[in-house]
Specification:
mainly alpha, two-stranded antiparallel sheet, 4 helices, IFRD, Interferon-related developmental regulator 1, Interferon-rel_develop_reg_C
Length: 94
């Protein structure tokens, strides 16, 4: 079994690790992901090592860039679908 939180994955192998994880889930509820990422005690219990540093903002794309890229991809998909529709309707016509 594995649990993804942020950029990390926690692999739970064996009954003991799963039982510990389930107990932590019952205690912490929906905050378990934040605690797995930040809480040093939990990181030691589950052998996660040191905290993973977040990606620097210089490597991330801005919201405007993402929006523009998604808009271009959407437009290209729409054009391709319209071309395929024309081919299907021509093939079905007698």
């Amino acid at each position: 079994m594995h649990v993804r939180f942020g950029q990390e994955i926690l692999y739970l192998e064996g009954w003991c690790a799963r039982t510990q994880y389930n107990a932590c889930c019952r205690l912490l509820g929906p905050g378990i992901n934040i605690h797995l990422a930040e809480n040093q005690l939990l990181r030691e219990i589950f052998h996660l090592g040191n905290k993973v540093l977040p990606i620097p903002s210089s490597q991330k794309t801005s919201k405007l860039e993402r929006t523009l890229m998604n808009a271009a991809a959407f437009k290209a998909r729409t054009i391709q679908r319209n071309k395929n529709r024309d081919k299907r309707s021509a093939a079905m016509a007698p």
